Amino acid sequence: MFNNKNKKNTDKKEYDEEMIMVQFIKSNEKKFIKCFFYEKVSDLIRRYRIKAEDNENANFFFSTRLLNPSLTVFESGLLNNSPIYVNTLSNISGGYCPINFTDVSKNKTKEIYFSKNAPSYRGVTKGINICGICKCKMCKACKKEVVVPIKKKKINLIKERDELFCPECESIIIPKTVCFYMCKFKIYGKKIKNGKEQYFENEPDEASNENSAKYFDPELNGEIMVSELIFEVLKYL
Ligand SMILES: [Zn+2]
Q: How far does the centroid of ligand 1 lie from the alpha carbon of residue 221, in Å?
């Protein structure tokens, strides 16, 4: 068997010459940095710092994970338009990027009743259901709130948020809030206030109405940054 080295080299050349653009996101500001797949992440960070005139100590996250500066763009899984989150908070436990989520520590819920006319992407299961936004432009639920039923008793949201898929199109959703159905449940975690992590733990609560789910309304509770968020079913009803 022969290995066509010429062919391989040509392919590699084309691939190496392909340029992509990644976006560095800090608070609400975005900076676009052009790069090649073979470049080191540390070079991108250096260029970002120059462009943003930002010398603050920061952690750089892609998706939920901390970027390793010594890996290449390709090895890190970065693609065109991939978002890199710049986070200046130090000592974040767990090493995952904090996210904005409904401030469930305020514990304000409302009953959402079931309807035969509800779309299929808003199906609720017994226990935990994560509600989020589907950003896929091809999806009929695009920019709408979809519901991801969680079929286990406990979820660590920050760690597992990459595994929450739109029930309609299966792309990753942006989690926003939670609802519970026919269970006794508990919520705890760490929210970030004035740049510091603050542990919170809600009293156990119950969603025991057969015809409705208990929904943590973003409008009632507001939004906050969380670095840890655990939803746990204590008992199914
Ligand atoms: Zn979708």
A: 25
Contacts of 36 (CB under 8 A, 6+ apart): 16, 17, 18, 19, 20, 73
Determine the Cα–Cα distance for residues 197 and 102; give it in Å rounded to an integer. Answer: 16
Q: How far is the CA of 175 from the centre of ligand 1 (A)?
A: 13
Give the pLDDT band (50/70/90) at residue 16: low
pLDDT tens figures, 47-93: 999 998 887 778 888 877 788 888 999 989 899 999 898 877 655 65
CB-CB contact of 165 with 203 (8 Å)? no
Token pair, residue 103, equals 């401030």
Strand 173-181 versus strand 145-149 pairing type: unpaired
How remote is the CA of residue 153 from the centroid of ligand 1, in Å? 24
Give me the CATH code for the 12-88 domain, please: 3.10.20.90
What distance in angstroms lies between residue 133's CA and the mean position of ligand 1's atoms? 8
DSSP-assigned beta bridge partners for residue 101:
224
Domain segments of the chain as ranges: 12-88, 98-236
